[in-house]
Design a protein that fits this description.
- It is extended and about 55 Å long.
- Strand 3 and strand 4 form a beta hairpin.
- The chain is of the alpha+beta class.
- The protein has helices spanning about 65-70, 90-100, 100-129; strands spanning about 1-10, 15, 25-30, 35-40, 45, 60-65, 75-80.
Length: about 130
């Protein structure tokens, strides 16, 4: 998931980009209510998690800064972009970090695709059953 926040500006009566000092806490729970991610980020950020349980997940974003919210008249806008599946992996970044050859990288991509297909099939079985 990628997100960015905007605070309400009383003077211009519009939402403006948040100051870097604003903290956001991101928490993700799986269908069983188990926390799979709980982390502090800034006014904008990117979070990733791997789901091991098929079904509906809960994503909670909340500001840790009451002072900022009060200053902004209590209005905070959050733009959230969620990407799901193996296409969310940044393979050039993975190749550079893990020093992979082109063949090793392709093998990693194919394994990720197989894993994604298996997850989708398991999800279909659970949601239909």
């Amino acid at each position: 998931g990628n997100y960015r926040t905007q605070l309400w500006d009383k003077q211009s009566e519009s939402f403006l980009p948040s100051t870097p000092g604003l903290g956001m806490h991101v928490e993700v729970k799986d269908p069983d209510g188990k926390v799979v991610l709980s982390r502090q980020y800034g006014s904008e950020g990117r979070f990733t998690f791997t789901s091991h349980t098929p079904g509906e997940h809960q994503i909670c974003l909340h500001s840790n800064s009451t002072r900022m919210a009060l200053f902004a008249g209590g209005k905070l806008r959050v733009h959230l972009d969620i990407q799901v599946g193996e296409h969310t992996n940044n393979y050039p970044e993975i190749a550079a970090k893990d020093k992979l050859t082109e063949l090793q990288l392709r093998a990693r991509q194919l394994l990720d695709q197989v894993e994604q297909i298996q997850k989708e099939q398991n999800y279909q079985r659970v949601s239909r059953g």
